[in-house]
Amino acid sequence: MYIKEIAASFYPWDLADEGVETCIDNVVRLCDVNSVYLVGLMHKEKRPLDQLYYPHNPKRKFYIPEDSRVYYQMDEANFANTPLKPLYSNEEFLKQKNWLNELVTYARKKELKVGVEISHTIYDADIAERDYPEILQRNVYGEPVGGEKIIDQRVLCPNHDYVREYIKALFYDTALNNDIDYIQSCLVMFYEGRPLQNDYDREIANVLGVLHGGCFCQSCAHKAKAMGYNWDQIKHDMTELYDIATERELMDMMTLSLLDQGNLLATGLLLEYPSFYQWLEFRTKSITELFKDIYGSIKRANPKVEFRYNTYIRYPELGGMNFASIRDYVDSVRESDYSEQSGDLKRLELKRQKILKIRRAIGYEKDLLAGVGIRMNANEEIVRESLKMLGKLGIDGISLGHYDGATFARLQAVKEGMIEGEILMQQGKHAET
Asked: Does residue 191 contact residue 146 with C-beta atoms inside 8 Å?
């Protein structure tokens, strides 16, 4: 099977600590990478993720980034339609350089494809809550919602005008002012909630878990009403279901137990609460509209820049993402399943299912890249086995996750797995290593 691309990501502190040339040379030498990208707007999380220490960083054992900082320069004139402006690092060793330009300069010398990622969260949550609390996603009781542990508890509502204009400006400016081939993003959509009892394998647990998410802010209310939805009925019914999902009262606990232990399908629940489906549909229409705006912004700035969406949750549809609806507004999709890092070969089946689900929705005209986990509990065997499986799935590329937590042995295993899986690189501008 032929693929077009093997991509590797770097964080600005990787480049600062190890050196741009060292980072790029390592991935090209060890696993024939022909595409590199900078995580240029990064959310707040410990690096390396879920490992105590870096395996090969010569200057620090770990790093905790600031919340949602941009690591390359932007023109604030492009943000005239929103009070939200790009926030930059205050760290001395990072703020002196345009790290995207640093990566691009050396990558072009190596004739590599180059991109940048706008990551999960795009604005400091503390500043947002202090200065613009109205832009935060909220549950049925008006409380801020968001991810847990890795991503900050508070995320922005894509239906607020300030947020929508800020997002459009981020992508427009990035495509306009940088020598890149693609912009990748794992932008948080609507917070998808969390499945009941963390049971990701039961349909009803996942669907009811969405009630932990949002959004029920004034911007969503205004937009839903303009679309013709009965927002008052939606909010009334979603409040009832939220109380059940969160066991707000003793009777809610009883009802949840019956739902949890019975065999009601999500179909049955949606038939019982038509407004539940309407709320999910409204969220999907909102996200599709957002992707249309992002895609248009990128293409107006530079038609040659590719927009690549990077999935970040098991069921993107619970966050408002319908791949069949957004396929006209993306050029490629990266499925960021990192089952390899579980250390369990059986988990690779989930990766296979997710890739096939996306392929069905986006068709064969759009490129589909498979993420490969090369950190944490991944080992050389599971990396090789994953590549052998991917060789049978008709993917268009491989994207490694991530260099900072990878051992060189696991990077080498990527090349070995490609050989065993008979994955070959198409020849072309960015295909030679």
From this structure: yes
Q: What are phi and psi of 133, to 5 degrees?
A: -60, -20
Structure tokens at 32: 């024939």
282 closest CA partner among 333, 230, 204, 356: 230
Chain Cα centroid distance, residue 377: 21
Which residue segments constitute the domains of the chain, with CATH numbers given?
A: 2-132+149-191+284-425 (3.20.20.80)
In the prediction, which pLDDT does 430 show?
39
**Of the listed ranges 114-118, 154-158, 325-329, the one predicted with least confidence:** 154-158
- Which has the higher per-residue pLDDT, 145 or 302? 302
Residue 375 β-bridge partners: none
Print burial letters for 278-301: b (CB count within 10 Å at least 16), e (below 16).
Answer: bbbebbbbbbbbbbebbbebbbeb
Question: Which stretches of 283-326 are assigned E, i.e. beta strand?
Answer: 306-311
CB atoms within 10 A of CB 187: 25
What's the whole-model pTM score?
0.94
Residue keyed to tokens 């407004």: 275
Pairing of strands 35-42, 69-70: antiparallel
Is residue 149 over pLDDT 60?
no
**Residue 401 and residue 371 in contact, taking contact as beta carbons nearer than 8 Å:** yes
Residue 109 neighbours by CB distance under 10 Å: 10
Q: What is the dihedral of CA 425, 348, 193, 131, to 10 degrees?
A: -40
- Using only the alpha carbons of the chain, give its radius of gyration: 22
Please give the full DSSP string across 20-41, using - where no structure is assigned. HHHHHHHHHHHH---EEEEEEE
What is the SS3 assignment for 145? coil
DSSP string for residues in 241-264: HHHHHTT-SHHHHHHHHHHHHS--
Decide: 72 and 116 in contact? Cβ < 8 Å: yes
Q: What pLDDT is recorded for position 429?
A: 40
